[in-house]
Amino acid sequence: MKRLHRKERVAAILKILTDNPNKVISLGYFSDIFQSARSTLSEDIAIIKGVVENLECGIVETIPGAAGGVKFVPGLSKKEEQQFIEELCSQIKNPSRIIPGGFLYMNDIINSPDIATKIGIIFSQNFRSKDPDYVITVETKGIPIALMTAKALNVPLIIVRRNSKVTEGSTVSINYVSGSSKRIQTMSLSKRSVQKGSKCIFIDDFMKAGGTANGIIELMREFESSVVGIGILIEAFTEGKKLVEDYMSLIKLESVNEETGEIVLTPSGNFKAFK
């Protein structure tokens, strides 16, 4: 690579960091690529750090020591986060989204790379302090937002299945009670998926009474692991107590009226500390 000017080098370093969120990259790596002294690179990173903080799009952290380096932690400002969730609520309120049974069509929203990425960043910046080893979700609708959360945290994504697959080898299966229908359901996970003693973040698109989330907690106990955070895109209003108490949701759905086409939902503000 030809020797770059500072502005070119700064742009290149920022690109590498943002392409690898929450991954520590050594100064030696950058020194080899750009053929620059570490002192020069430290000045470049200071510039990047200031730009990122001014734009409120995350933080750039420097880690001292032989195993240290620099990493980019993606984030949104509280103002941008609030604006994004309010815009999401406006999209979901469209009466054309109502489908028979009082359900809402959400595939286009959840599968939008831009929307899923921002949802993942919001969850990641709220659960990063938990230092999770995995992000876990249940097939199928929650996968896009769980994947973007895993990417932002730089941890693997684990997908729990409703039925075991022969291609996954030996599995652990549990029966759990659906919180809304009170029916017995099954979930399974390959024994190779989760290491013993791991910490997991559960991410899903929708929660009514919390039966699935509670089932995930029980499943992780079978792996001698724990769920240290629960993030839900839409939380439905239910009478009575949910089966899980400590979670965060982005949107709270109050009601869906098929006859009038009225959808009542608001930004949740439900950012609870997980114990």
CATH architecture of the largest domain: 3-Layer(aba) Sandwich
Rg from C-alpha positions?
Answer: 21 Å
Strand order of the largest sheet: 6-5-9-10-11-12
Shape: globular
Enter the CATH topology name of the largest domain.
Answer: Rossmann fold
Spans of at least 5 consecutive residues with low confidence: 271-275
Number of helices: 8
State the end-to-end CA separation: 49 Å
- The level-1 CATH class of the largest domain: Alpha Beta
The helix fraction, in percent, is 25-40%
Mean pLDDT: 92
Written description of the protein model:
The protein has 275 residues and is α/β, with parallel strands linked by helices. It contains eight helices and twelve strands. Helix 7 (143-153) links the parallel strand 5 and strand 6 (157-160).
Secondary structure topology:
Blueprint: H1 6-19, H2 27-34, H3 38-55, E1 58-63, E2 69-74, H4 78-92, E3 98-99, E4 103-104, H5 107-110, H6 113-127, E5 134-138, H7 143-153, E6 157-160, E7 171-177, E8 184-190, E9 199-207, H8 211-222, E10 226-236, E11 248-257, E12 262-271
Parallel strand pairs: 5-6, 5-9, 9-10, 10-11
Antiparallel strand pairs: 1-2, 3-4, 7-8, 11-12
Task: Pick out its properties.
single chain, 275 residues, alpha/beta, Arc Repressor Mutant, subunit A, Rossmann fold, 2 domains, six-stranded mixed β-sheet, 8 helices, globular, disordered C terminus
Offer a concise description of the structure.
The chain is built from eight helices and twelve strands. It has helices spanning 6-19, 27-34, 38-55, 78-92, 107-110, 113-127, 143-153, 211-222, and strands at residues 58-63, 69-74, 98-99, 103-104, 134-138, 157-160, 171-177, 184-190, 199-207, 226-236, 248-257, 262-271.
